[in-house]
Specification:
mainly alpha; 3 helices; 2 strands; globular; binds zinc ion
């Protein structure tokens, strides 16, 4: 397992997401952003909008995914 924080994934806080793959932590971050914004957390709104834009424009967002996968691959195992 590896841990990637909200901040490393483009968000504003230091909450850690654990996962076996980059997709696991990206999905965890997506859930976290949705929940934070639903709970009225304004600081997570820009990251939530960015994430929504990525789902809508997957081709344009390939660079971001590549960067996240690379960052995840370079993390030490927990
Ligand atoms: Zn966060």
């Amino acid at each position: 397992m590896k841990t990637m924080t909200c901040r490393q994934l483009g968000g504003p806080c230091d909450l850690g997401h654990q996962g076996e793959t980059a997709d696991d932590v990206i999905n965890a971050q997506d859930r976290h952003l949705k929940e934070a914004v639903k709970a009225g957390d304004e600081t997570h709104v820009p990251a939530r909008e960015d994430m929504k834009g990525r789902w809508k424009h997957p081709v344009k967002s390939m660079g971001w995914y590549r960067d996240m996968k690379k960052a995840f691959a370079e993390l030490p195992e927990d």
